Structures are given as C-alpha cells and as structure tokens.
Amino acid sequence: MNFPSPPYATSSPSTSSSSSSYSLNHASPNFNRSMLVPQAICTSQKKSFCSGAQLEASVNSNTVKNHLFFPQRSEAQPLVANQSLNKHLFSVGALVTPTAQDVADTNVIGDDKIGVLLLNLGGPETLDDVQPFLFNLFADPDIIRLPRICRFLQKPLAQFVSVLRAPKSREGYASIGGGSPLRRITDEQAEELKKSLLVKNVPAEVYVGMRYWHPFTEEAIEQIKRDGVTKLVVLPLYPQFSISTSGSSLRLLESIFREDEYLVNMQHTVLPSWYQREGYIKAMSNLIEKELKSFDCPQEVMIFFSAHGVPLAYVEEAGDPYKAEMEECVDLIMEELETRKITNPFTLAYQSRVGPVEWLKPYTDETIVELGKKGVKSLLAVPISFVSEHIETLEEIDVEYKELALQSGIEKWGRVPALGCEPAFISDLADAVIESLPYVGAMAVSNLEARQSLVPLGSVESLLAAYDSQRRELPSPVIVWEWGWTKSAETWNGRAAMLAVLLLLFFEVTTPDSFFHQWGILLPSSR
Description:
Layout: E1 22-24, H1 100-104, E2 114-120, H2 130-138, H3 154-175, H4 182-199, E3 205-210, H5 217-226, E4 231-236, H6 243-258, H7 261-265, E5 267-270, H8 278-292, E6 302-308, H9 312-316, H10 322-339, E7 346-351, H11 364-373, E8 378-383, H12 391-407, E9 412-415, H13 423-436, H14 460-465, H15 487-510, H16 515-518
Parallel strand pairs: 2-3, 2-4, 4-5, 6-7, 6-8, 8-9
Antiparallel strand pairs: 1-7
C-alpha cells in the first residue's frame, strides 16, 4: 500500500532498488551539504548541516514558539538519495537554533524541572530473560505484522516464535557473558549525560526507558511523574530514525500520553535523529582514526560500515527515511575523515536480517564474501547504527562476521568500538538536549476527552504522522497478494500453512477428542 504524503511534503518518497549497493572509494563527489533536510535540532556551529530551506527571519531565541513552521522547498533543490525526509516538523527557530551556551545563559529553564528520557531497545540481562525478552519483541506489531483479521494471534504467535528461537539466542548471549550489557551501558550513558548537563549549567534528571525489557518505558514514565518533571526531552539512542526503532518507541509513548492527564499537560519535545550533529560525526571519526592506526598499512584498509537492517518495504512503501539517513551519515563521516587526510575506500552494508522477506541490501555477510573475492586483505568494521555494545556487535560482528571474513581471504580484521560513554559524544548529546529546550512545547488540546493528537512542538505525533498520517498499519514486507506462482503467493501460502499448524496444535491441547487422538496418531498415555 502507498501512504499519502503529509500535507507539508513536496514530493513522495521514491522507491529504492532492492539490489542497490552503497559502495564508494571516497566521499561521494556529488555530496552537498545543501542537500540536507533540516533536522529538529541543529547546531549553530554547523549551520550548513541545516540548510534545507531558505528563510530570512529574525528569531528571538529566548522566546518559546508553540507554532509549527512548514518550509517551502525550491523545485531545484534536491533531496538526499532521492527520498523525501519530510518527517520533521519544526519551528522557525529550528533553522537558527541557539547554541547550548546561549540557552544555558538565558532563563529558558526558569523554575521548570527538566527531564531527559533516553529510549533504547533493551536486552536480556540473564539467560533466563532471553525467552520473555523475545516474546516482548515479537509481540510488537511493528516487528511481526499480522493482517488485522489475525491480530488476536499476535501474542500466541510471539510465544511460539520466542520459544522456538530462545535456545539459539541463549547460545549467543552465553558467548558474550550470559546477558546483554545494554542496560548497564545505557545507565552509564544516562549518568554521564546528567553530569555533562550539570557542567553546562542545566540541572536535569535523566531516565532510561527500554522498549522490550527492564526498565520499560512505562516504568520510566511513572518515575518521571513521581519526580514532578515539567519539561521533558525525549532522546532515542538511535542516531538515525527508523519506523522499527524510534518509530516503535514513539508509538508506545503516544499511547501512554493519550491516556494520562499529567503527560498531556507536561511540555515535551523529541529529537528524532541526530546523526548529522557535528559532535557525533567527530566522535565517530575519532574512533575510526584511532583504530586505523592499529593496522600495518592504514591507508589500505577498507572501512566497512555495518548498520542494522530493516525490511525493504519499510523504505519503499512506508517512506522510512532510515536508508537515506544512513547513507548521508556515512558521507558526513567520510567527509570529516577526508579533512584529516584519510581517504580510505569504504562501503556500507546491512546486518541482522531475519525471516523470508527482503531487507535492505547489500547484506553484510554477502558483502564480506564479495570483498574477499575482490582481494581486500584488511577490513575495519564500523557498527554505524549502534551507540552501545550488545549482541549485534559483540557476537554477530566480533564472532560471526570476523570468522566469515577470515574464511573469505581477508587477513587483517579490526572493529571500531561503539561510542558508549566517549566524552565528545556525551557532551554533544548534552548540547542537543540544551538546544532543544527553547522549543519544548505544551500540547494544544482544548478538549481532553476528545483529543486526537499530541502536537507539542515537533514531537511524537508529528513524527509518526510523517510516515503514517492516518494511523494505518505498516505495509507488509511483500505485496499483499498476487495471483500465480509468485514470491508473494508463496509467502502467504507459508503463512497460511503455519497458521493451520498452530490452530491444529491448539485444538489438540484444548480439546479432549482431538483429531490426533481420534486418528490414533497420539495414544491416550501421550496426552
């Protein structure tokens, strides 16, 4: 299905080739910062990152604007990767954002109690947590999407899949110490962010809300309410926006906000993505530069950016900006490295695909094999979409992909660590939070009983509306139906067969005179 473009969009997203490869020998010569679409928060030090519309206005940075500004784009102005990234609603001030120091020096904070909510995926902390964590993951309709008529099977199917996958997942978590370090690292990031904000004269409480494991987002929200926070900055720890990560968390936040009078009246804003921030780009470049020095011939090393994949349909049908933002992010990093006289060849691929549907290409495992065939001998893996170490970096990259690389003829392997609590990264996150404070807005809701929207300044609802303005379901990973011997038909045949098996097993367990028993397949003693 094709979703209608938001009213402020000037063009609809164009489809991306499923087999397209993002592989460059140097920073793209066609890359132009003026192509970048404005983000919700921009640093004044790098205004070129924010030049997506021409605006001549005088803005008082001390005044909180509660209006949304829809910029007009010139017909000649291109979009990144031919995709519309119009997912950000922002105020006039978003194009002339004051620096963090400007905000800290004003009375924007006043008597308000500031809170920062860090959103992340979550992960099992022990091997016993693995199966219930997987259940929470697969029970999310943004992860496993069933037709509306079968929605009642969401939790039974999640239970079935989680039990099926748990043994292999436990092996993976056992290999990295018996559990995910994600919570520990995110807690450390929260503590360091709080300290950095305080140093910058902005006292704030920082909370952690995980999507699929403790501390759940709901738990963090309850603590925010108990602490009496009056201004909240929501900061997903995903540098690039995707429906399946930030989008899923925002859907959950939206449902929580709609039902709570305190949250309706609490001012908040969201930083939807921040991959273009100068501090983030420099922090990533610092880590890459450092790891390159560990090779005997640093200039010959292939820089291999590996990002978490998403189903292709998210990009082609739902307008997910993830692929365009990821490619733009890589360009920005390589451009920064070029200023340091680092012009290594590089490529981008996508990892962690699951299921029979097509995901973003090129795939990491296939790309590693191909690089080996082409004679690449030194490779530096860069986990571009991860800011914390977890199973995708510690097991999938460090173990599986390293082994594959060595088997494919690559002789020297290195891996850039996730950012974690790297000081420049944490300081830049603090600046992003501070710079967003003048644009924190209250929900303009006159009738709380009939409220239809959460529209504080460029926040939850506005971001969700960018790819789903009518709250429709996300598209299926394949075309819903085609007649004949097609990939779509085979996929749906498989789903129908799986559903039939599940229903038969359910009937066997719950019915005394089941088919298996009547047909003699199961003896009475087996029941």
